[in-house]
Design a protein that fits this description.
This protein is mainly alpha-helical. The chain has one domain (19-79). Helices cover 75% and strands 5% of the residues. The chain has helices at residues 5-34, 36-39, 49-79; strands at 43-44, 47-48. A two-stranded antiparallel sheet has the order 1-2. The longest helix has 31 residues, at 49-79. It is elongated and about 55 Å long. It starts with a helix and ends in an 8-residue tail after the last helix. 3% of the residues are buried. The chain crosses the membrane at residues 15-37, 49-70. This is Membrane protein. Pfam families: DUF4212. Residues 7-83 form the Sodium symporter small subunit domain. InterPro entries: Na_symporter_ssu.
Length: 87
């Protein structure tokens, strides 16, 4: 099956946003954890910043990543007319 230019553009945008969101996920998951000792020297709302990022901040970022991806892909689906049609 040969892909049309419109399908290739859709896939390119999908891969781009997925790559950016995966980079954010990697930074939040691994980079902040790697620097947790250094971040613990800073206090935020009475908690060490490393703990805050690990216990609360990362979860908030994960939920925001999921929300953004779903919102972006719904808009992209409508733009490229591949969305699910309602009744």
């Amino acid at each position: 099956m040969q892909l049309t230019d419109k399908q290739k553009q859709y896939w390119k945008k999908n891969l781009h946003v997925t790559g950016v969101l995966l980079a954010i996920w990697f930074i939040v998951t691994f980079v902040f954890s790697y620097f947790a000792r250094e971040l613990n020297a800073i206090s935020f709302l009475g908690f060490p910043l490393g703990f805050y990022f690990g216990a609360q901040g990362a979860l908030i970022v994960y939920v925001l990543i999921i929300w953004f991806y779903a919102h972006y892909m719904n808009k992209l689906d409508v733009e490229y007319d591949v969305h699910e049609k309602g009744d």
